[in-house]
Specification:
By secondary structure, this protein is mainly α. The protein has helices at about 25-45, 60-85, 105-120, 125-150, 155-160. The longest helix is centred in the C-terminal third of the chain and has 29 residues, at about 125-150.
């Protein structure tokens, strides 16, 4: 009779993290992306409802601004991933980018969206970006409440020192 060894395989690569994501987080983010891209493409290339202001700003200036913001977003995401997904965390992360921003992954994603808005100068895309910002803010608030539950006073002190979205370099 042979013996069988059972191996537990985590559902996600980040199951080792202590905090929880908002329910359906990935579906929400994917939906935001699909809606944003649909609005951006339809407004910029098909119907051209709100792209009349593009004539006031050179395409090159828009592309340079867009590329700069997108690269900043990608850099923020990569620096956060190096800290988050390569080590098991047992306390509040307050090093690297996390010393300045509580949600650098979300901020990086939002900056990428903003880069595309700046590249297109589509008012409808900007409106969808604002709505997407509120969705991500809701996701961040959910996660913060869970991190307060997990880490208690340590996370509350972290929240006092570090801003959710805009770095406070003067601390």
């Amino acid at each position: 009779m042979s013996t069988m060894k059972v191996i537990n395989i985590p559902k996600h690569d980040h199951d080792h993290l202590l905090g929880k994501e908002s329910p359906h987080n990935h579906i929400i983010q994917l939906t935001c992306l699909i809606v944003f891209i649909s609005i951006l493409v339809l407004d910029s290339f098909v119907f051209k409802f709100s792209v009349g202001i593009t004539g006031y700003v050179s395409l090159w200036i828009r592309l340079i601004m867009a590329l700069a913001i997108i690269l900043i977003g990608i850099t923020i995401i990569r620096s956060a991933e190096k800290i988050l997904f390569h080590e098991t965390q047992s306390s509040v992360i307050d090093v690297g980018i996390f010393a300045y921003i509580r949600h650098p992954l979300y901020l990086g994603i939002l900056l990428i969206y903003l880069g595309f808005v700046l590249g297109s100068f589509s008012i409808l895309s900007f409106v969808s970006f604002v709505l997407i910002f509120f969705v991500y803010n809701h996701l961040a608030i959910f996660e913060e409440k869970d991190l307060e539950r997990v880490f208690g006073e340590e996370y509350l002190q972290y929240k006092k020192r570090v801003s959710r979205w805009f770095p406070r370099f003067w601390n």
